[in-house]
Write a structure and sequence with these properties.
Elements lengths: L3 H51 L6 H4 L7 E16 L2 E8 L11 E4 L4 H4 L5 E7 L2 E7 L2 E4 L7 H33 L12 H21 L2 H29 L11
Helix pairs in contact: 1-4, 4-5, 4-6, 5-6
C-alpha cells in the first residue's frame, strides 16, 4: 500500500520547514540586535551606580551648589501634606513639602505606608530629604530615616535583558537547525517526529531564568561584580541547557528512516 497523501504532502511540508528556518533566522538576527543594544546600556548604568555608591555628603562649596554637585545633598523642608494614597494598586504614604523647595524634593515622595515614618510625619513637621543629582535618596525625621525607591541599581537588570536576548538568540538558531533538518528529512522521504516541542514552559524559562539570576546578583553584589556574577551564573545554566538541546535534537534524528511504503 502506497501512502500517496504523505508522499504528496512531503514536498510542501519541506518547503514550509525551509520558510520556517528563514523566519527563525530573521528572528535570531533581531534578537541578537536587541542583545547588543541592551549590552551597550550596561556600562553607563554601572558608571552611574558606582558614582552613587561612591558619593559622600556635600560640604562647603559643594553644598552651596545644591543638587548640581555630585554628592549627597540635604534639603530641609516643611511638610505640607502627609497622607495615605494609591500608587497603582499599592498603598503608599505620600509626603509633599511646602514651596519653595529645591528639586527634586519639590515632587511628592512615596514612603512605606506601614513604615515608621508614616506614623511620625504630620503636616507642619520639619523633614530632611537626601538627594543625589536628580534622585531622592531618603527622607528623615526625628532621627528616623527611610530609603526611597528609584535609586541607581539598573545595571544588572540590563545585564539580565541582555542575557534574555542572547539565550533567545541561541534558541532561535537552534530552531533554524531543527527546521532545516526536518526539511532535509521530508525532502528525502523520511518522517520526522519532534522530540522536544517548544512549549509555554520553555518560553517562560527563557525570560524567567536570566531575570531571576540578575535579581539574585543585584541583591548580593554591587556594580560590575553583580554584572559579572550574573553572566557567570547564567552561563552555568544556559550553556549546558543549550548544548543538551542541540544533542537531544541531534539524537532525535532517526538513524534509519522507516519506509513510507507498506
Amino acid at each position: 500500500m502506497v501512502l500517496d497523501t504523505v508522499e504528496q504532502s512531503a514536498p510542501g511540508r519541506a518547503r514550509r520547514e525551509r520558510m520556517r528556518a528563514v523566519a527563525w533566522a530573521l528572528l535570531g538576527v533581531v534578537l541578537l540586535a536587541f542583545s547588543v543594544a541592551m549590552s551597550l546600556l550596561v556600562p553607563g548604568r554601572i558608571a552611574e551606580e558606582q558614582a552613587f555608591l561612591d558619593a559622600r555628603p556635600c560640604a562647603g562649596a559643594q553644598s552651596a551648589r545644591g543638587t548640581a554637585a555630585d554628592c549627597l545633598h540635604t534639603i530641609r523642608g516643611t511638610v505640607r501634606s502627609a497622607e495615605v494614597a494609591k500608587s497603582g494598586k499599592a498603598d503608599v504614604f505620600r509626603v509633599r513639602l511646602l514651596a519653595p523647595v529645591p528639586a527634586p524634593a519639590d515632587r511628592p515622595m512615596d514612603l512605606d505606608s506601614d513604615g515608621e515614618l508614616s506614623r511620625l510625619i504630620e503636616p507642619g513637621d520639619q523633614v530632611e530629604v537626601t538627594t543625589w543629582r536628580d534622585v531622592r535618596v531618603s527622607v528623615s525625621h526625628d532621627g528616623v530615616s527611610e530609603t526611597l525607591p528609584g535609586l541607581p541599581d539598573e545595571a544588572t537588570m540590563f545585564a539580565g535583558l541582555t542575557l534574555i536576548g542572547v539565550w533567545a538568540t541561541m534558541l532561535a538558531f537552534i530552531a533554524v537547525f531543527g527546521s532545516a533538518r526536518r526539511a532535509r528529512c521530508l525532502a528525502a522521504g523520511r518522517p520526522v517526529v519532534p522530540r522536544v516541542p517548544f512549549g509555554m514552559a520553555k518560553g517562560l524559562a527563557v525570560v524567567v531564568v536570566p531575570l531571576t539570576v540578575a535579581y539574585f546578583a543585584l541583591s548580593v553584589w554591587d556594580a560590575w561584580t553583580a554584572v559579572g556574577m550574573t553572566v557567570c551564573i547564567w552561563a552555568l545554566i544556559a550553556l549546558p541547557a543549550t548544548v543538551a538541546a542541540l544533542r537531544w535534537d541531534r539524537d532525535g534524528s532517526p538513524a534509519s528512516a522507516p519506509s513510507l511504503r507498506t
